[in-house]
Write a structure and sequence with these properties.
Length: about 160
């Protein structure tokens, strides 16, 4: 797989307090859950002085969640989601999990070493949060898939 580089006009950086409204707008536009947006947990890609992609590493006891990964529609298909996903994986310091909607996103995350798991396989600190999504999956037939990063099994976590 060839390495994807950021376009010249773009930078990858930790989010700052001034980014909060842009983050909210990006996440809401993507119809993702806006209730747990903590700007200190985000990394962003800024292109031509505008936020065009974001992703969050939420910290839990003995685990992290990769969440709120969004690339603005006009900047999609340029590898920004791939760059951001790889970066967030590198930044994680605990076992890493995510929830995604549908086979297309499952396929996207599988490329990086995420594998589908059951609710029972989650650490206790994530079971309630992810359990709510699984309830929606059953009641409303929402195709929510829980995944765990297993791309590099030799990683050492500081637990």
């Amino acid at each position: 797989m060839t390495e994807i580089l950021l376009p010249n006009s773009c930078t990858l950086r930790p989010a700052s307090a001034k980014d909060i409204w842009s983050l909210r707008k990006i996440v809401l536009t993507a119809k993702l859950d806006p209730t747990q947006l903590i700007w200190q947990q985000f990394w962003v890609i800024e292109c031509e002085e505008k936020l065009v992609a974001c992703g969050q590493l939420r910290n839990f006891e003995y685990a992290e969640e990769l969440g709120s990964l969004v690339v603005v529609k006009s900047w999609q298909k340029r590898g920004l989601g791939t760059i951001l996903t790889k970066h967030l994986i590198q930044q994680s310091t605990k076992p890493l999990y995510l929830e995604c909607l549908g086979k297309k996103l499952e396929s996207f995350y599988s490329r990086f070493g995420f594998v589908p798991i059951s609710l029972a396989e989650l650490p206790e600190s994530l079971k309630f949060k992810f359990g709510i999504s699984q309830l929606a999956r059953k009641i409303f037939k929402v195709p929510v898939i829980i995944m765990q990063y297993q791309g590099n099994n030799s990683r050492i976590y500081n637990l």
